[in-house]
Amino acid sequence: MKKLLFFFLVTIVGLTLLGRVFYLQIIKGDTYKLKSELNAVKSIYDIPERGFIYDRDGDLMVANQVAYDIMMTPKDVKKFDTLQLCDLLQMDKTRLMSKMDDAKKWSWQKGSVIVPQLTQEEYAPLQEKLRKFPGFYAQKRSLRKYMVDHSASVLGYIREVSPEKIRKDPRYQSGDLSGKAGIELQYEQELRGKKGVKHFIRDHYGRAVESYENGRYDTIPNSGLDLTVTLDNDLQAYAELLMKNKRGGIVAIEPQSGEILTLVTAPYYDPALLMGRDRSKNSVLIFNDTIKKPGVNRALQAEYAPGSPFKVINALVGLQEGVITTTEKLRCNHGYDYGGRKPLGCHSHKSPLALNTGIAESCNSYFAQVYRRIIEKGDTPEDGMDNWNRHVTSFGLGDYLGYDLPVGRAGLIPDGKYYSSRYKYKWYAPTTISNAIGQGEVITTPIQLANMTAAIANRGYFYRPHIIKAIDGDPIDNPDYTVKNYTTVEARHFEPVVEGMTAVYKTGTAKYAQIPGIEICGKTGTVENFVKIDGKRTQLTDHSVFIAFAPKDNPKIAIAVFVENGYWGSRYAAKIASLLIEKHIKGEITRKDLEEYLLTHSLEYEYEKQYSGEPFEINPRVDQGLIKPESNTLNP
C-alpha cells in the first residue's frame, strides 16, 4: 500500500512539472520571449488620424495635418552635448532640463514629449541630427487642420492630455491629444481612433534598425470616425460676419428636426490659433480675457433675461388657461396701472388692444394683465405660479435641453416655492409682474429661446436641439433627438399667436426688417442691462433681442439673436435674424441696406463703458446666483 501511494505521488508530481514546463515553453513561450527581449526592442506607437468633421452639406470643416513630437525615453539617454541639443530644439537649457526631469518622474521606460506638435517644416532640420542623441526620437502624429476660420466655440479644440487623465484612462499616454471643448470633447471617443504599435530591434545606440519578429506583434492604427454636423457652413460664416464688433449669441434651429443650423458666440476667434507652437500663448490671450470673454460660449452659457419675446409664452399660457380670448381688448395707459402706480411703463400705441395688436406693438400693459390673471387663477399665488411654471417649462425653458454639446446652463423659471422662500411677507401676482414681460426673475439662454421659437413654429412641440447629423456616414440613431416633446399648450392656441408674430413684421416693431418674398413671424425685445461698476450695480445700454421663424407655414428655420448693449430689438437683433433667414431660405441677400448697416456699425464703444469697472458679468443674477427682485416689481 505504501509503495502504491509513493508511486502515485511521484506520478502526480512528475505530471505537474511536465505540464508546467509545457505551459511555459510552448503555450506562453512567445510571451516570455517577448518580455525577455524588451530591453532590445523599441516600441513606437502609430497615432491614428483623427476623424474629419463635415458640415450638413458635406463641406469639409476640420481635417488633419502631419506633425511631430520630439520624445525622450529616460532609460535610453546617454551623455550628450546639452547646448547642441538646445540649439537644435530651439529651447533654453532650463526648459530642457525641466522637461527631462518631468519625463523621468513620469516613467523611466516610457517615452515622454519634450517638444510637441512640430510642423513638417520645423521637423525637417532635426530629422538627421536627432539620431546623434540616444534616447531622443520623433513620433509622428496627426494635428488638426482647420478648413474654416469660424465656429471655434462649436468645433472646440484638442490639447495634450493631463497626467490625471492618463492615470484614469490607460488608453492615453504622455503626449497624446484629446478634445477639450465643443464637438472635439463631446465626441472624443468617436474621433480619436485606435493606436497601432510597431516593434523594432535596437542597435547599441538605442536606435531602431529593423522590425522585430517581422512585425508579428505589430498592430495597425484605426482612424477615427468622420462626423457630419448639422451646421450650415456658409450660414455659420455669415452669422459670425454680422456679429463683428458685437457681443452676444445666435442660435438657429431647423424646427422639423431639431438640427442646429447655426450656433455663434461673439466675440469669436479663429480655431487655428489653438494649434501649433503658438497655441499656449494664444490660449492665454483667449481664455484669460476677463473682459471680452471670447472663450465663453454665449449661445449656450450666457444667461439673460429674455425680454419681450417671452410675452408670446404668456399669451399662449393665457389662452390655454382660458383667462383671455383672441378678441378681448385690454387698456394701456402708457403702462400697467396698479394701486395708482405704474411699475411697468409702455410706449405710445393705440388702446385698448387685443392679442394680435398686443404682440405686434409689444404692449407691456396688455401682457401684465394677462400674466396677473394666470397667477390669480390659482387658489393661492403659489398655486398659480406653479401652474404657470408647468406651462412655461414645457417649452424647454429652465432646462439644459439635453443637447449634445458639453456646456450649458439651465436658466431660471421661478415657481411658487421660489418666491415664498424669498419673501417674509405674503406676496401676490403683482409682486412678480416683471415676469410678464420677460424681465424680473426669468432667465434664459439663447439656445433655449431658439428652441422655444421652434416649438411655436411647430405649433406645440419640439425636437431636442443637436449638433451631430451622422457618424461615419450613418445618420444618428438616438431617440432623444427623434421624439417629439409636446408643450402643455394645445395646438389650437398657437395660430392666433403666430398671426400676432406675423404682424410684428407687417405692421409692428420689426416692419422695417421685412424680407421680400418670405413671410416671417417674429418678436422684438429690449432687455434691461445691469452690470457692476466700481462695486455698484449700474444700468447700462439695453440689450437687443429677437426671435423669429420662417416661412410662416412649413417653417425651415427658427432663430434667436441676442446682441449685448444693442439698444432695442429692431436695431440690431431683428436685422441679423432677417438676413440669416434670407440667407438660409434664398441662398442670397437682397436687403443690402440691412447688411451694410450691420457691417459698418460697431458696439465696441458701448463695451468700453464697462472696462473701468469690474469684469463684465454675463450672468445677470446676483446674490449667490439668485436674482433679487428688481425695482420694477411691485409689492402691494
Overview in brief:
The chain is of the alpha+beta class and 636 residues long. Strands 2, 3, 4, 5, 10, 16 and 17 form a 7-stranded mixed sheet that branches. Strands 12-11-21-20-19 form a 5-stranded antiparallel sheet.
Description:
Residues 248-579 form the Penicillin-binding protein transpeptidase domain. This is Penicillin-binding protein 2. By secondary structure, this protein is an alpha+beta fold. The protein folds into 2 domains: 41-229, Penicillin-binding protein 2a (Domain 2) (Alpha-Beta Complex); 242-264 and 288-576 and 587-608, DD-peptidase/beta-lactamase superfamily (Beta-lactamase, 3-Layer(aba) Sandwich). Helix 10 packs antiparallel against helix 20 and helix 13 packs across helix 15. The protein starts with a helix and ends in a 28-residue tail after the last helix.
Strand content: 15-25%
Query: How much helix is in the residues?
Result: 25-40%
Give the overall pLDDT as a whole number: 85
Write out the CATH superfamily name of the largest domain. Answer: DD-peptidase/beta-lactamase superfamily
Beta-strand segment tally: 21
CATH class of the largest domain: Alpha Beta
By DSSP (H or I, 4+ residues per run), the number of helices equals 22
CATH topology grouping of the largest domain: Beta-lactamase
Structural class category: alpha+beta
Query: Could you give a short account of the major beta sheet?
Result: 7 strands, mixed
CATH architecture label of the largest domain: 3-Layer(aba) Sandwich
The total tally of domains equals 2
Cα-based radius of gyration, to the nearest Å: 32 Å
Task: State the end-to-end CA separation.
Answer: 107 Å
The dominant shape is elongated
**pLDDT < 50 stretches:** 613-636
